Amino acid sequence: MPLYLIHAIQNLNILQFTHQKHWENFTTQREVKPIAIKESQQRWYLVALEISKNTVKTFGLDRISDLKITDSKFKPISYNVEKEFQHAFGVETYNPAEKVILQFSKQQGEYIKTFPLHESQKIIEENKDKVVIEIYIHLTDDIVMELLKYGSDVKVISPESLIETMKDSIKQMANLY
After folding, report:
1. How far apart are CA 68 and CA 77, in angstroms?
2. For residue 77, what are the contacts with CB-CB under 8 A and spacing of at least 6?
3. Which residues, at least 6 apart from 137, have a Cβ–Cβ distance to it below 8 Å?
4. Residue-level pLDDT, tens digit, the chain, 177 residues
């Protein structure tokens, strides 16, 4: 499928496909102007302008079926993928980008230093007990899930909205047990 998508992107062909939403058990028919393909966390996504809503969206390739490259052409779209996703963790950008400060245990901090969470990552404090970093990202479900995987080895210092989101997620997890 990626080769078909690259062909459509390069040749400015409109695409039609069936899309399965992750969280809802139904499919929708989509008609889009393809812009780019993007990888995040070992999954591939189509970045495209959805014609009916005149909005740029991302579509997981694993949820696209019945793909058709139409003969209909479109004019090039002025959309800078690198700029639009520069503050994304993954492919979600639905919330504004914010400065996030995270405190990691020294052991986990050593790992984070060699495998940064985001290209904006800066170390702002380090001692024998902890590593504190700053990143500038969109606050989305993707980053919350990523932070939760570090368990007690990470503490959100700011912003307050992310602290509250983490607390709520942890409470919900604790209620499961």
Report:
1. 20
2. 33, 35, 49
3. 87, 88, 89, 97, 98, 100, 118, 120, 143
4. 778 899 999 999 999 999 998 777 889 999 999 999 999 888 999 999 999 999 999 999 999 999 999 999 999 999 999 999 999 998 989 899 999 999 999 999 999 999 999 999 999 999 999 999 999 999 999 999 999 999 999 999 999 999 999 999 999 999 999
Six-digit token string for 107: 């052991």
The Cα–Cα gap between 99 and 87 comes to 10
- State pTM to two decimals: 0.82
Residue pair 125/157 in contact by the 8 Å Cβ criterion: no
Q: How far apart are CA 111 and CA 89, in angstroms?
A: 18
